[in-house]
Known about the structure:
Elements: H1 22-37, H2 44-51, H3 55-61, H4 71-87, H5 93-106, H6 115-118, H7 120-123, H8 126-151, H9 156-180, H10 188-210
Region (Disordered): 1-22
Protein name: TetR family transcriptional regulator
DNA-binding region: 43-62
Amino acid sequence: MGSSERETPGSHVRVGRPRRSSPVMLEESAAELFLEQGYDGTTIDQISSRAGVARTTFFNYFPTKGDLLWVELDAAVPRLDDALAAVSAGSSGLGAVEEALAVVADDITGARVPWAVSQRELMGTADELRATGLARLLAVSEVLERHLRRTEPALGDAGARAASASIAAAAMAGASQWIEEGTARGPLADHLRGAVRPVVDGWRGRIGAID
């Protein structure tokens, strides 16, 4: 969630505004509370109450409090799978990876900068991000690995796994840089291409050496 979409702490009374969906209200309420009292000091009950929904509604959308920190990435993983399927016909396996990552990134504007990352010092989310980040990295890597196993058989199973892990890590690094650059950050897709392309080129070279 971008800061432009989040109200200032304490401004949870939304007079005159159209009612927003429960997930969005939960995200906004969590952001307000994390800013006011920190991540560790905020409970799911408090987030639900601030959003004006039942505790059970929270769990309809988020299995844990920590899942609120990864809304954009968790939503991007299935879109990446779809994008890989859509672009594979006209690109090599590795080329499709770079293109599909850019397609997914184009859906994430500067207004949707992950607040839990950009405001981690103020919100106290750094430890939770570290604790839950590996699962997200693995989720991205697994999508890429399935694609590369199908489209780049020369890599073999171990190569597909290694290539996927390294590309996923590069993509995460590019996304982190994008977040850190503030209002002058530019498109996310450009950052991902810049981070991923050297890794993709390296694996292309590896395939060429095998051939």
